[in-house]
Amino acid sequence: MGDRTHAHTGAAGRAAAADRPASVRNVVLVGHSGAGKTTLVEALALTAGALNRAGRVEDGTTVSDHDGIEQRRRRSVQLSLVPVEWDGFRINLLDTPGHADFVGELRAGLRAADAALFVVSAAQEPDAVEGTTRAVWEECAAVGMPRAVVVTHLDTARTSFEEMTRLCGRIFGNDDPDAVLPLHLPVRGPEGPDGHAPLTGLTGLLSGRISDYSSGERQEAPPSGDRQGPLREARARLIEGIIAESEDESLMDRYLGGEEIDVTTLVGDLERAVARGSFHPVLTAAPAAGDARQGVGTVELLDLITRGLPSPEEHTPPAVTTPDGARRPAPVCDPAAPLVAEIAKTSSDPYVGRISLVRVFSGTLRPADTVHVCGHGLTGDGEAAGARHEADVRVGALSAPFGKQQRPLDHCVAGDLACVSGLGGAETGDTLSGNGDPLLMEPWTLPDPLLPLAVRAHGKADEDKLSQGLARLVAEDPTMRLEQNQDTRQVVLWCMGEAHTEVALEHLRDRYGVQVDVEPHRVPLRETFAARAVGRGRHVKQSGGHGQYAVCEIQVEPLPAGAGIEFVDKVVGGSVPRQFIASVEKGVRAQAARGVASGNPLVDVRVTLLDGKSHSVDSSDAAFQTAGALALREAAADTRIQLLEPVARIGVLAPDDYVGAVMSDLAGRRGRVVGTEQSTGGRTLVRAEVPETEIGGYVVDLRSLTHGTGRFDRAYARHEPMPPQLADRIRESQENSAKVR
What we know:
Blueprint: E1 24-31, H1 37-47, H2 69-73, E2 80-86, E3 89-95, H3 103-112, E4 115-121, H4 126-142, E5 147-152, H5 161-172, E6 180-182, E7 184-188, E8 199-204, E9 210-212, E10 219-221, H6 228-246, H7 249-256, H8 263-275, E11 280-284, H9 298-308, E12 320-321, E13 327-328, E14 340-349, E15 353-362, E16 364-365, E17 370-375, E18 389-394, E19 398-402, E20 405-409, E21 412-413, E22 417-421, E23 431-434, E24 440-441, E25 451-457, H10 460-476, E26 481-485, E27 490-495, H11 498-510, E28 516-519, E29 526-529, E30 533-541, E31 548-558, E32 565-569, H12 578-594, E33 605-613, H13 621-637, E34 641-655, H14 659-668, E35 672-678, E36 683-691, H15 698-705, E37 711-721, H16 724-740
Parallel strand pairs: 1-3, 1-4, 4-5, 5-11, 6-11, 32-33
Antiparallel strand pairs: 2-3, 7-8, 8-9, 9-10, 12-13, 12-24, 14-15, 14-23, 15-22, 16-21, 17-18, 17-23, 19-20, 19-22, 25-27, 25-28, 26-27, 29-34, 30-31, 31-33, 34-36, 34-37, 35-36
């Protein structure tokens, strides 16, 4: 793993289709925003011979940006696959965004990968590393995914590899700091005028030899004498950690007995410990400078991926059922087995159409195959989002992506990844299986989108395209949720945060040609009577010929929350004919749905029909409906109407240091804290009830308040009376909006 005594040369060129799972490595790069994940991917691709110069393929684009949005925003916003070849292995590098808004892309990358590289920047504050990376580390630990740590930006001033190693041990080591240890120590050149010593190479702790990159390509040399002391101490700790985490008791006895353990044996134990997910080596890597072909540490990292991280054959696949829910045996990572594959990501190409990134878990996928597509949709809790969809489709072209290029493939074996076109309406998370044996893989869980974005078509030409564009956005990104709110008559796209909404609007405009206007999101309010009231509805019109005549008298009284609307008939003597009783009720309910004061639906009242008048000729169903509506409006005018607002039940998970600030902020939002619970990792769960009008942008505010370490979930609890002063302001605002319209 970078400790070999001979120079290493990678196979040049982009990766061809793999023929066996053992020669495939699927690795996802995870880390906080700005850690340098995409730069690292480009450095690895350059070292492997897949790039002509750092960060560029032959068409001049980056390795990950397909539509230019990342270059404009200067950050990754989508999952990207970059396949390279190294030492006879096909390495699928899955580059994920570091911003919390794009966690859906991260979860898709974790699903498609067999191991993870956690990229941390030595130039960023420790809070940035801890806050945005620890939760993902814990997710990987829960499923036993092998992990390694890569420290970047050590070539910048005032950075320390030793400090970063200690930080990683504290954040990722939990109760076992010896499970997170460096494989190499950095070598720095002479100090410059600014006092900064550039990174020029690495010293392997197992081999004791230096990998010198100062010439632009890796050269090996023995270490200088002044480094022997620190090397011996770090090497001893590394060896003890490797042997302990590999649970090789006989080797530990030999080591403690003073026997010199050969490097080959140690590397074998290292590989086993990493594959088991119990030991996490720390490496460093830097992009190549100038015309150099190899960045510092890139050879060692590629060696670790191929020799130390597991193949797809060692990965436990997700559970599989039939579309009806019957359990089926787990997929076998064998190219000759029946096909089981999953769509990890869906995107749109202006020339090819919809492209699906597919991970094949079993069997072999080929162009022109007929496969069965089955999907259950994805939601925040992993449950079905709607009706299951199934279809038999003919597979289009298979390709390996590289920037904007799509290199054709003639097959994709079990364990490999490929881009597939021609899958019709297939969505992210759908399962591909043989058309004679339909299967469905269990979904991966995704967080709920909590930031609402209310949109409307900018012009007449956009109205027809809006629904299609929104539907395609949601199909591509399961962390978006589309809502057609019948109460507020708004189209709401729920997103993960502000950056997520900006990208969604840009995709609507640039990919689908839809111009939209953003409007303030309205929370669905309700109205109710604060006290008993009576009303008389009189609808009498006579203009020659058949007229309209209906009179009704009603009493309205408030009911407990959640009771809805009750209608009671107490008419005596036939003053309102029996056939028109239902007409009055229909008119009352229709007016209640429209509201009586602020335009919000009326709820939780009992309406009693007491008396009325009719005409033998002019009374009709329509006349008594109108009279019922008029009576309800008159009753509302004689009493106080309470405005009800929805209250959400939320749970905020934040580090203990921020709990006081979180609770104070919730109090400022008219929230009521109902309890706290101690959680793992020095965090506390705060449970509270907060009006929904106060938490529209809470996901953004909470991140700012907790420096990106806090998260929350929400669920509707009930509607409660709104404070009178706030209700008056909302009524005034709605009246002004109505005048403008």
